[in-house]
Amino acid sequence: SRAVSSMPEPCRSSPFSDDESRDIDWDSLGFGLLPTDYMYVMKCSEDENFERGQLSRYGNIELSPAAGVLNYGQGLFEGLKAYRKEDGGLLLFRPHDNALRMRTGAERMCMPSPSVEQFVDAVKQTAIANRRWVPPSGKGSLYLRPLLVGTGPVLGLAPAPEYTFLVYASPVRNYFKEDSGALNLYVETKFDRASRGGTGGVKTISNYAPALKAITRAKSRGFSDVLYLDSVNKRTLEEVSSCNIFLVKGNVISTPATSGTILPGVTRKSVIDIARNRGYEVEERAIDMDELSDAREVFCTGTAVGVAPVGSITCLDKRIEYQTGAGTTCQELYSTLVGIQTGTTEDKIGWTVEI
Length: 355
Ligand code: COI
Fold this sequence. Notes:
Largest sheet: 9 strands, mixed
Mean pLDDT: 93
Shape: globular
Number of helices: 6
Bound molecules: 2-OXO-4-methylpentanoic acid
């Protein structure tokens, strides 16, 4: 039987062989859900610690209609990727950072959270059990989506009495569908993403559905996504709905400082370190929207997005264009990052975890 309960715990192998992935059309991957074989589930009550989770076959979960996550949005998610090396081995990229970010978010959302070790072990087990779904080198990656949600029933507004930590996976390639590879962003002046004292700096599920209105409007006008401004003065740059933003001018790279309303991206901080190591000056600070006109290049970073060049930004009906393609800073940082993630460039800092 392929029942995962018959596997020794912790699971270090998959009952499927890599050969069983030969029918998957890797070239048609985008960023849509392709259900895989297993997910990891671990539960705990509000006054307990998470104890032992386990893999089960990927499938629907049962929830009380009164679950905290359904009624009041008490939930967090994470995103990280497993990459296949040229020799067939698998690498995770900075899973401890995602684990720590989930712990910070859980504190903000009044939830218990798995320990860093539990988080990383769950992610490893999920990646290994679904290893036949990790695309060949150069064809994408296996996106791992850890969730922490209040699944116990509540009626009045209060923390849920039970929590579920779950990890599922899907093979992915490019997040955006742009043919040229470069994004065309629209500066959003009506809707805000986050406000001071809110939850913009943690990865709560409730930050994302409110962005749909602006994204849908921008897409209907031919843009890839929107760039948000601060909610007080509507002047300084914040982030794009699904990623952080960087401006390049001369040898200086600038990105909005993470002061509570901006998600502290793992790719964001990795790119900052790579850029500094390569001799760029990197500034984390408040960036006025007028500075968009002075930049030579703009690019976005995120786990799903990777490092993506921005071809244009439309701000108050003025379209500003940027350099993209060969020889750009964006390309240089992208290639270095992907090299480390896929094991073709030496990982001197210890960001990757071989599984
Ligand atoms: C990620 O980049 O992993 C995210 O969580 C963004 C999401 C909108 C896909």
